[in-house]
Amino acid sequence: MSQSEDNLPPTASLTNHDRKPIHIPGSIQPHGVLLALNPQLDILQVSNNTQDFFGKSPQELLGQPLTSLLEAQQVEAIRQCWLKNIGIYTTYKVAIHTLYDERYFDCIVHRIADALIVELEPIESISEVSFLSFHALVSEAIADIQRTSNLTEFLHLVAIQVRQITAFDRVMVYQFDRTGAGAVVAEAKREDLPPYLGLHYPATDIPESARNLYQRSWLRFVPNLTGQPVKLVPIENPITQQPLDLSFSVLRSVDSCCIEYYQNMGVTGILVIALMQNQQLWGLISCHHETPKHLSSELRQICEFLGRIVSLELRHKVNQLELDYQVKLQSLQSEFIESISQADNFSDALIKPELRLLDVVSASGAAVCLDNEITLVGTTPEIDQVRALIEWAETQVKDNLFSSDSLPQIYPESVAFKDTASGLLLLRISQVRRYYILWFRPEVMQTVNWAGNPNEAIQVAEVDGTLTWSPRKSFAKWQETVQLTSLAWKQCELDNAIALRNAIVGIVLSKADELAKINSDLERSNRELASFAYAASHDLKEPLRGIYNYSTILLEDYAQILDADGLECLETVVTLSVRMETLINALLRLAQLGQAQLRQQATNLNELLNQLIDVFRASRQDSQHFDIRIPRPLPTVECDSVLVNEVFSNLINNAFKYNDKTEQWVEIGYLDSPELHKKRQTPEPPVFYVRDNGIGIPQHHLETIFRLFKRLHSQEKYGGGVGAGLAIVKKIIELHNGRIWVESTIGVGSTFYFTLE
Ligand code: ADP
Q1: Does 154 reside within a domain?
Q2: Which of 115-119, 345-349, 412-416, 640-644 has the lowest mean pLDDT?
């Protein structure tokens, strides 16, 4: 992997203070020389290897002007670096006259707060690398990587190009996740080396302080990890008495912990290039070499340039990836919304077909809660668990949304169903109606290929009472399960959920509007129909009466001048007009009921029935045969007593009319509250019944008998009738918001049930 400089302790008890910060090691790598200068360009500090490179000891150089080492013209150029921003490099080629000969160096200068740092790396000759060769190297690489269409391919090509330019044994692209841990996402390597592609590394391997340094300086180059660090002389800046800040130093020495880390991996030379996205460290291009590996400053500059280009392109590629996903979500969403808006039943449309609801936020399970009814889709917790979860989550909702990718941490009960719902996205559609959609994601349970045991990233050993640091030894594949967390919900998924809510609310509202309009249209046409029926039947009665009267006059006064056929015809006219009047009366009654206002009052049904039965018996001569049973006293109910009287009267009449038994009986009673209402503890209206032992009604007529003018028999049978009684009964029951139905067995009898809400 990359490098582990400034590894932090895994235990909270150890603080940064326990370790020497990595940017002030007080030493540099041995392949170059460092000079720290004051604003007058006097030498304040030097690395303790000047003798080897210049033939001059540190003591000979300290306190001297830079002109004692470099030519005046070069010194003047370096002086200009004071005008530059902190951490900006300027590179020169310089020649230094030593005791014996002239030597050439790459001179890399940058400013820090209170000093100018000059770093010198020996080179063969002073000739400049031509712009053309630089351009040729870079432009080909850039053209290649820009041609790639997706992120994976792009990163793979980046690794290949960087390896071609640098000739390192292994080049990897390493990507950080939001926790600071990361994985090798692309690799180009010497064929005989084992692959690291796909390996994950814990956050402790590249702790925050190291990541911060990469954010400031894009490149880290260590040609030989085994080289002995060279101390600065003096170790502290003589003016500020502070250790020299080597944050931007290209020669900065390497943390001993980091050296061991790499040696465990069999690495000697490293180059690391930062990859930035939106001013954040997105990842690293990490180059490893088994043996010491030198890279000229020009090639390093090319690498840094490439890093910057890749970072720019990376933003584009990552954005593209996210954009593609967002576009996919949005098109799924609009299809979904369209089908909901066209559906007759929007709650059904939500859950069918199943996958669609899951796809809109890439979930593996969902629950739709409409009032008390919960429907599960896909892989979800049990329904009771979902119900309890909603009750808890209701208190967490903000702006109609609640989401978590680690539900068990905030709702411990969810540990029981972590496999299906370690992640929750809850959308409130309506508070009043308790409408919710919940989406679930399982515990990641993805088996991560950790490079070594992440729990042993750093070993802390106490030697002579002081803490020492050593990186973990094992780099074998280590599998660790990410516990109690799901994949994170993306912002675009949350946005999609909210958009879905707005659409549903819109659809429901417009459906409600539509329904209200249909209702009022219906009411109006019902009213019109009722008044039409009333007027028509009322007006028909008058001419009918005329027909009847004149026919009777003809029969009474002119019977002698008509023959037998004529008389029969006239009698038929009279009978038909009587029958027609009955029909019109029935129609009129029904029309009246359509416009009737209920006069509700507490009605003792026992009293009502007693009177009714008295009248009934009085109106029949053979009343002694009528057996009317009321097994237990009936309740007192709120109803229109006149109308309910009509209901009982019709039903009792029919019960005896359609009965051919010698021992006829009718039983009137009511049923106990059904179980459901007992459970809910809501008062349930009693179900009344009128039962007889009559002729019964065929199964397929159990509903049709309630239609107006529907009779099952010919005129003459069972005492005649026009088939309006049950239609009137039904209308009255409906006026009371009740229901009527019948159960019957041919030859045994019928039972009419009804309720009065
Ligand atoms: P009507 O009695 O005037 O014909 P109803 O509307 O009261 O009209 O009844 C419609 C039809 O339902 C009747 O013609 C009869 O065939 C059937 N019906 C009604 N009540 C009973 C009953 N208790 N038993 C058997 N048949 C019945």
Answers
A1: no
A2: 345-349
Q: For residue 704, what are the domain limits? A: 597-755
Categorize the per-residue pLDDT at 10 as very low, low, confident or very high, splitting at 50, 70 and 90: very low
Q: Is residue 33 part of a domain?
A: no
Q: Are residues 541 and 394 in the same domain?
A: no
Which range has highest mean pLDDT (147-151, 445-449, 628-632)? 628-632
Q: What is the pLDDT of residues 737-752, one digit of tens each?
A: 999 999 999 999 999 9
Ligand 1 atom 16, closest CA = 712
Q: Are 636 and 675 in contact (CB under 8 A)?
A: no
Half-sphere exposure of 513 (CA within 13 A, CB side): 6
CB 109 within 8 A of CB 89: yes
Check whether residue 404 and residue 496 sit in a common domain: yes
Evaluate: CB of 692 within 6 angstroms of ligand 1.
yes
Look at residue 116 and tell me if it is in a domain. Answer: no
pTM of this prediction exceeds 0.85? no
Residue 90 token pair: 């300027």
CA of 725 to the centre of ligand 1 (A): 8
Report DSSP letters for 574-636, one per residue: HHHHHHHHHHHHHHHHHHHHHHPPP--EEEEHHHHHHHHHHHHHHH-TTGGG-EEE-SSPPPE
Query: 280 C-alpha vs ligand 1 centroid, how far in Å?
Result: 85
CB of 705 closer than 6 angstroms to any ligand 1 atom: yes
